[in-house]
Design brief:
With about 100 residues, the chain is mainly α. The protein has 3 helices and no strands. About 0% of the residues are buried.
Length: about 100
């Protein structure tokens, strides 16, 4: 009997813990409140995305034909590089002929 006394007190503590434990009766309420909070966050995110898209559209309108101009600039730059290369080859050929004399 003396050996079982600590076990009896342990069993009593466990019974008290089981009785005091919340069985999750308000879990549905917690889930509902969390879902409401998530809905608020989703609305906020949607508003921010709308503002961002509006800003992007206004920026595109401000730029106008800028992408076309940039493409033309790049094409002209390539043509200039080709001409410079052609000039260098002609100059090298001229120098070679000049050395032959």
């Amino acid at each position: 009997l003396k050996k079982n006394r600590p076990k009896v007190s342990q069993v009593n503590k466990m019974e008290d813990a089981v009785q005091n434990r919340d069985l999750g009766g308000n879990l549905k309420e917690q889930i509902g409140s969390i879902n409401e909070e998530m809905a608020l966050y989703r609305d906020g995110k949607r508003k921010v995305q709308e503002k961002l898209s509006a800003l992007m559209e206004s920026r595109k309108e401000q730029l106008g034909d800028l992408p076309k101009i940039i493409e033309e600039r790049d094409a002209i730059g390539k043509k200039i590089a080709e001409k410079v290369q052609e000039r260098n080859t002609l100059r090298d050929e001229f120098r070679a002929k000049e050395r032959e004399f």
